[in-house]
Write a structure and sequence with these properties.
By secondary structure, the chain is α+β, with helices and mostly antiparallel strands. The protein has a domain at 269-471: Orthogonal Bundle (nitrate reductase domain fold), CATH 1.10.3650.10. The protein contains 22 helices and 16 strands. The protein has helices at residues 21-30, 59-62, 80-85, 96-99, 111-114, 152-155, 167-174, 195-199, 226-230, 252-256, 262-266, 284-288, 295-302, 309-317, 322-329, 332-339, 403-410, 415-436, 444-447, 453-465, 468-471, 495-498, and strands at 3-12, 43-47, 66-69, 72-75, 106-108, 127-129, 182-186, 205-207, 214-216, 237-239, 244-246, 272-280, 344-345, 356-359, 510-512, 519-521. It has a four-stranded mixed beta sheet with strand order 12-1-14-13. A two-stranded antiparallel ribbon has the order 2-7. 46% of the residues are buried.
Length: 522
């Protein structure tokens, strides 16, 4: 068993208010420069919607992620020969119009607002192209175009997450009086089985050995752009000024100094938790080959118990230090993802095994408009038998967010894993209500969803009452002690298979790590 450490994060979508403070913070720190104007390493999308870039979830169009090929994984994009045939024109790379509708990144003529020149009319800031400097350009798409469900009645029907719903269900859901929406913060998922790494011909994309952060070596990057096509989340970007690919680096210079990523630090709703997971690298390919319904369970199965003595011994043999093991034991992510089974990966059917997880939103639940609230019937149908279903999650009159929609996003269509996450949130809510309203703790509802009183108290503490040091648990990285291996740094599920154009022998040369001046020997 090869134990590896992975930096991971969870997002509580029930608490995200869509303020985009994380987006602004990331933009100001990392992509506020020439060539990166259209890049949003962190963006908050409103669902339903087609997102940024347009329809990034539609892999029939963009060919991202992995697919099963017998007992092996292969890139959905296609073979090496197909990649070479698209060398000069790649039909599966989003164009600028998919990021900004008119094909121009725009700013505004702010100088007009500060000019001392007298105008006949009050001055206004007119849209201006940042590429051609043409003024009065048409604006018809942008990173937050669908914010707060704006235009969802138009773009929502193109959201691929409706694929398991009938046309009637989708139309009813998108009607204004029954509209639903929730916010989805997105950054690079720093996957355990990253397709961008497998697709890079020059080996510039790689996964750091000591903490699993996926980076792009700027010296090796040759602007093939296959990482854009093969990333199903469309988080690598092309810098048109430098001619290099760039992506979220999880603020690793801050992490190495004991500081959280700026998106985490600036989050108003405190929806993020950050920590270390230990996983069995020998079973990564096995997890990626699981059937669609089993993908979430398969990924959870390769996450290891940091308190298990056998795991601890194996981790030490793999070069993981005691402070990293201690951080894994205190990690909030292990409890949220594995112990309590509340958080789920985004689109596990892409088979990249993302390291970022989402707690699905409760919607909210439609109740009796105050006539019978608060009451047990708002949460559970208490007339159901103890071993029966607690709530019919398929009823659109109960959940504003269609259950099938959430199952498509977070369960690869498996409704049970989403049902478990939602019902456990509801059970904890009901349990807390019994304490605060009835002054009579009701643990029976916890028993029915497989939680103990200690679990419920831990969930309340972890998601609502935790201090900063409980939400952010990570040791200082010891880069000089990292064990560098050609089979792990640039690929996980089989080096030859994942990156067919990368050299089997590591070139003995110094190169600079992404966005830093520190040299690393290969």
């Amino acid at each position: 068993m090869k134990v590896k450490a992975q930096i991971s994060m969870s997002f509580n979508l029930e608490k995200c208010i869509g303020c985009n403070t994380c987006t602004v913070a990331c933009k100001n720190v990392w992509t506020n420069r020439e060539g990166a104007e259209y890049m949003w390493w962190n963006n908050v999308e409103t669902k339903p919607g087609i997102g940024y870039p347009k329809q990034w979830e539609n892999q029939d169009l963009w060919k991202g992620g992995w697919v099963k090929d017998g007992d092996k994984l292969k890139l959905r994009y296609g073979s090496k020969a197909y990649m070479l045939s698209n060398l000069f024109f790649n039909p599966h790379v989003p164009e600028m119009k998919d990021y900004y509708g008119n094909g121009d990144v725009y700013t505004f003529t702010y100088d007009d607002l500060h000019s001392s020149k007298q105008f006949e009319q009050p001055p206004v800031g007119r849209p201006k192209s940042m590429v051609t400097e043409e003024e009065d350009v048409t604006i018809d798409w942008g990173v937050n175009w669908e914010d707060n469900a704006g235009g969802a009645h138009v773009t929502g029907r193109h959201d691929v997450n409706f694929k398991d719903m009938s046309e009637q269900e989708m139309e009813a859901t998108l009607k204004f009086r029954d509209v639903f929406y929730f916010y989805l913060p997105r950054i690079c998922n720093h996957c355990l089985n990253p397709a961008c790494v497998g697709a890079c011909p020059s080996g510039a994309a790689y996964k750091r050995e000591e903490d699993g952060v996926v980076l792009i070596d700027q010296n090796r990057c040759r602007n093939w752009r296959y990482c854009i096509s093969s990333c199903p989340y469309k988080k690598p970007y092309y810098n048109w000024a430098s001619g290099k690919m760039e992506k979220c680096i999880l603020c690793y210079p801050r992490i190495e100094s004991g500081l959280p990523p700026v998106c985490f630090h600036s989050c108003v709703g405190k929806i993020r938790s950050f920590g270390v997971l230990l996983y069995n690298m020998d079973r990564v390919e096995e997890a990626g080959l699981a059937n669609d319904r089993d993908l979430v369970a398969a990924q959870r199965n390769i996450i290891l118990d940091p308190f298990d003595e056998y795991v601890i011994e194996a981790a030490k043999q793999s070069g993981i230090s005691d402070d990293w093991i201690d951080a894994a034991q205190r990690s909030p992510i292990y409890k949220i993802v594995k112990k309590w089974e509340l958080a789920l990966p985004l689109h596990p059917e892409f088979r990249t095994l993302p390291s970022l997880f989402y707690i699905p939103p409760l919607a909210p639940i439609v109740t009796s408009a105050g006539k019978d609230s608060p009451s047990d019937t708002d949460v559970f149908d208490m007339e159901k038998p103890a071993d029966g279903p607690l709530l019919s999650l398929d009823e659109l009159d109960k959940f504003r967010v269609p259950f099938k929609y959430l199952a498509t996003m977070f369960g690869a269509g498996n409704e049970e894993v989403v049902r478990t996450a939602l019902l456990r949130q509801l059970a904890v809510r009901h349990y807390q209500r019994s304490i605060r309203v009835d002054n009579n703790p009701d643990t029976s509802v916890l028993d029915r969803v497989g939680l103990s009183k200690e679990d419920a108290d831990g969930i309340v503490r972890g998601l609502s009452l935790s201090f900063y040091n409980e939400r952010f648990v990570v040791p200082t990285t010891k880069r000089e002690e990292a064990e560098i291996s050609p089979y792990t740094e640039r690929g996980l599920a089989g080096f030859e298979q994942m990156s067919p154009w990368s050299p089997m022998k590591r070139r003995k040369s110094y190169h600079k790590s992404y966005h830093t001046g520190s040299k690393r020997y290969e």
